[in-house]
Amino acid sequence: MEHNDRRDSYGDTFRIEDGHPARPLTAQRWFRLAMVLLGLAAIAGVVVYTQGDTFMASWYASRAESKASSGDYHGAIADISHAIQQTPDNVQLYLRRGQYRLSAEPPDLDGAIEDFDHVVSVDEGFADGYFNRSMAYQRMALLLDDEKRAAELHSAAIADLERARKEMPSNDARLLNQLAYTRAVAGVDLDLALQEIETVLNGVDTQAVLATVEEEPINSTDILRAREILAYVDTRGYIQHLRGEQEAALKDMDLALDLYLATDRAIFNRLADENARAAFEREQEKLHAVLLHHRGLVHQALGNEAQAEADLSKAKELGYNPKVGVY
């Protein structure tokens, strides 16, 4: 019987015999296919081995962020801890866990400080590590009845913000506001604190900012700007109160509350998720409580007893309590 050998596209020999269909010589072909599959499996194994930890860390970190945004900080801490186990060299994860520990109820201040310590030990120039540790120190100071130890922690908080300042633009508004407010809460260097917050508000037409959020429609940029300004105005008002400048303080406190009320509902209406709305409301109650407490103190200093009682009582009802971080 006549036959001819030919090659297919894989390089295997096909024998064609008269009167019969093509019949492959399969042994060599299957061997080559097996080698290709083994090679692909090896490559896949390397990818899984080298990238699997990173993938799982990203997944846990993403889920932690989702839980934190809905107010489940304990769940977020658990997930971010899993992410850290997968990628222990990622300092950003330690920073986030420290922030979650700081925000949890009750907060884990020792754990937060431990995380921020790790961040700045790995990267001495990491400004957010110092910034966040400063807040943890301040929260811890407000829990103490030991005035000497509390003063030490307030000093440590200020020192951390000064250290962060070396790594950030000198006129960074967020940092200067936090530095000024930290000095005010500690009751130290009030002249310097006022100078710092005046630097932040220099050139800001606060009444114009209020006007932009009292008119419809309000755009998101104006809302966010107004929220920043209300924090800065409240800080200045609180410092003025501590300096005995009550009329100026009252003007700032009224403005801060006007900005709060004008933006609170606008932000709430922009949140589609119910969990996000609930978490936002919880946080805003705390802010409202602080603003009312500060104005109540000013009314009290001015002898406006009825207004002081109304503001201070409402602040307490909304949760004002320095020992749980609402201050």
Q: Ends: how far apart?
A: 100 Å
The SSE order reads EEEHHHHHHHHHHHHH
Give the overall shape. globular
Helical proportion?
over 70%
Oligomer: single chain
User: Largest sheet at a glance?
Assistant: 3 strands, antiparallel
**Structural Rg:** 31 Å
The percent range for strand residues is: under 5%
Number of strands: 3
Give the strand line-up of the largest sheet.
1-2-3
- Name the poorly predicted regions: 1-18, 46-50
Mean of residue pLDDT values: 86
Structural class of the secondary structure composition? mainly alpha
Q: Give the number of helices.
A: 13
What does this structure look like?
The protein has 327 residues and is mainly alpha-helical. The chain has a domain at 204-327. Helices cover 76% and strands 4% of the residues. It contains 13 helices and three strands. It has helices at 26-69, 73-86, 91-103, 109-122, 127-143, 147-165, 173-186, 190-201, 206-214, 220-242, 246-270, 274-302, 305-318, and strands at 3-7, 13-17, 23-24. The chain has a three-stranded antiparallel β-sheet, with no helix packed on it. Strand 1 and strand 2 form a beta hairpin. Helix 7 (173-186) packs parallel to helix 10 (220-242), helix 11 packs antiparallel against helix 12 and helix 12 (274-302) packs antiparallel against helix 13 (305-318). The longest helix has 44 residues, at 26-69. It is globular. The termini are far apart. The relative contact order is 0.06. The model is unreliable at 1-18 and 46-50 (pLDDT under 50).
